Amino acid sequence: MPVVSQVTCPVCGSFCDDIEVIVKNNVITDVRNACAIGAAKFLDYANHRSVKPLVRKNGELVEASLDEAIRKSAEILIDATYPILYGWSSTSCEAIRVGLELAEEVGGVIDNTSTICHGPSILSIQDVGISSCTLGQLRHRADLIVYWGCNPWSSHPRHVERYTTFSNGRFQKSTWRAYVSRLGGILSKKRLRRAVNLVLRRDVFATPEISRELPYTMFKKKRKMVVVDVRKTHSADVADYFLQVEPNKDYELLQAFRMLIADEELDVDRVAGVPVETLDEIADVMIGCKLGVIFFGLGLTMTEGKLRNIDAAISLVRDLNRRTKFLIMPMRGHFNVAGANVVFTWQTGYPFAVDFSQGYPQYNPGETSVIDILCRDETDAALVVASDPVAHFPKKAAQNLVKNPLIVIDPQTTPTSLMADVVFPSTFVGIETEGTAYRMDHVPLPLKKIVEPPSNCLSDVEILQRILHEVRRLGSKRK
Ligand code: SF4
Q1: CA angle 181, 182, 186 (to 5 degrees)
Q2: CA distance 328 to 297
Q3: 284 contacts 227 by C-beta, under 8 angstroms
Q4: What's the whole-model pTM score?
Q5: Residues 243-281: pLDDT tens digits?
Q6: Is residue 24 exposed (0-12), middle (13-18) or buried (19+ Cβ within 10 Å)?
Q7: Do residues 165 and 142 lie in contact, with contact meaning Cβ atoms separated by under 8 Å?
Q8: Residue 163 to residues 89, 168, 289, 478: CA-CA distances in angstroms?
Q9: Residues with CB under 6 A from ligand 1
Q10: What element of type H or E holds 63?
């Protein structure tokens, strides 16, 4: 059976490139090396998809020819005075490039999903810079890994195994054996508790408190993992140490670490619910590592303080670099959200929320970002590519999005595509279409074509090119 190797997984920002896919008669029958989320995408992508373009007529979405759908989309975009073009994080860089051309042509606003995830991180990086590197360097050299406000065990299931704690690097070895033996102890305790409860028919054990004491593994000269979060997650179970921070107190905690690293005194007993002695010990572990890294997620970016939290985290890393080597990296969600930022920046100079309404690119998140435009009800049409804003935007933004003409390009049926006026079922990039995408550390990797798409389906690039061509044709006719 043909095996396609070195396939990249088009799901999360880890963008694993060691997937093997077994194909029989143009059907994917098995997947190796992928996590459950990645495997489900390869094996089930074809379920519940539509393959014909749809156009809304008399309130109903009905099948239409591709030419009719293209013409209708071009008319919607030309007739609009302030259209928005949104999505872009789950498609290829090639499609994003055409999307930017289209946004400029129709004088619209183009924005990607960073606007609702790591937008504040980007603003902060623009303010204060960032010390970062590739995931390959971390795999080989990092001996202290801090996950702050993120839960990679659930959201990026292979991140820990491929790039950090459980990866076998050239200079740092995997610590999965230690975890497996620790897990054995945890499971035995759980089993014992369940058995006793069953016999006595009541819970005689108090819920165990989260220990503040640093375990001995934190002081060993080997790879260590620390999770900082408001609640105990699966990633925290895997970590050597879990630091529980009070909600919305990350900024205080980061600034406290900065003071301790600068050998300054703190005049309080606790910061963000954590005793200062514990913070002091963790600060010592940070200073004592050879190469440390902070991976941060939306628990830091989208909580109180937003970009100021990231300012503080980057400043902490800068301070640590006076004593040792430390780096920082955002945990990007969609497989090509980093690529969306990169391509936007190549073409316009700005990573998201780019407004072409004056004929040149303008960038002012808060004013030119799509959620703000939608909440102010300023737009009059929208094109959504490979995204589902109706399911994820605030209610007011979603209501204003669907009340205007809406075009959706997406291989899947989503709440947004059900509300649209024109729907293009495109091919799955990375399965039915090739392309390029950027991993979370900004390393570009190829997306492979593994199987042939259904005969009527075009790729995002082809659909966008045809809409762009039609917009130019109709535009020149109307002049
Ligand atoms: S970790 Fe992410 S990129 Fe890797 S296989 Fe799982 S879903 Fe795919």
Answers
A1: 120
A2: 11
A3: no
A4: 0.93
A5: 999 999 999 999 999 999 999 999 999 999 999 999 999
A6: exposed
A7: no
A8: 22, 9, 18, 55
A9: 9, 11-12, 14-16, 34-35, 37-38, 156-158
A10: strand 60-63
